[in-house]
């Protein structure tokens, strides 16, 4: 299963901030691209299984109305083990979820950590919230289908707070990792991923520990990574 992002301006929750560093030395200033790619977890430190993201809504809908309508549905079918008919209907439902996602984002703005679209074991929305206060399950109707909205509480940061942490870290990452090619925030896991071009894990350990002390969050090193495509460079 996979997740793909949407621009932060859609306000589906600024969850994962991915910043390209490949041309950082050029000194050009840009705004980081935001992606929504969280997975449902028991807490911010647990492992994640990725599912479909709301960033695919518009693309999925467009593909379903083009000359090759089965391309996206076939891919969804293979990824999630459902029939082509079910896959097609789920993609159509996704294409109409954006207003509901925005409504949830507005209602829970003060606590919002992320919103994700889950495919397994059934299609539903998961809303990650900062703090321990519980929220009951909700239901929304899309295309005559009841879509369940579930809540995960206990995340340490809101989307905005974690985005700020990642943005500050991006300004200094090259000091610690000269071969850094990108930076990704993963609030649902409580960590920041640093992508580097090098392949020697041990040589990056001292920088990893120092960067953790500076940022205050766990750091995961992703080795052998080239700069992400279609992302805006940040200043050195």
Report on the architecture of this protein:
The chain is of the alpha+beta class and 236 residues long. The chain has seven helices and nine strands; from the N terminus they run E-E-H-H-H-H-E-E-E-E-H-H-E-E-H-E. The strands form two sheets. The chain has a five-stranded mixed β-sheet, with helices on one face. A four-stranded mixed β-sheet has the order 3-4-6-5. Strand 5 and strand 6 form a beta hairpin. The longest helix is centred in the C-terminal third of the chain and has 12 residues, at 159-170.
Which properties best describe this structure?
236 residues; alpha+beta; globular
Shape estimate:
globular
Integer average pLDDT: 75
Main-sheet strand order equals 2-1-7-8-9
Biggest sheet layout = 5 strands, mixed
Number of helices: 7
| Portion in helices | 25-40%
State the low-pLDDT regions, or none: 1-18, 20-63, 230-236
Order of helices and strands: EEHHHHEEEEHHEEHE
Say how many strands there are: 9
The rounded distance between the terminal residues' Cα atoms is: 35 Å
What's the Cα radius of gyration?
18 Å
Structural class per helix/strand content? alpha+beta
Regarding quaternary structure, what we see is single chain
Strand content: 15-25%
Quick synopsis:
This protein is of the alpha+beta class and 236 residues long.
Produce the secondary structure layout.
Layout: E1 16-20, E2 33-35, H1 57-64, H2 70-80, H3 84-94, H4 98-107, E3 112-118, E4 124-130, E5 138-142, E6 145-155, H5 159-170, H6 173-176, E7 180-186, E8 191-196, H7 205-215, E9 218-222
Parallel strand pairs: 4-6, 8-9
Antiparallel strand pairs: 1-2, 1-7, 3-4, 5-6, 7-8
Helix pairs in contact: 1-3, 2-3
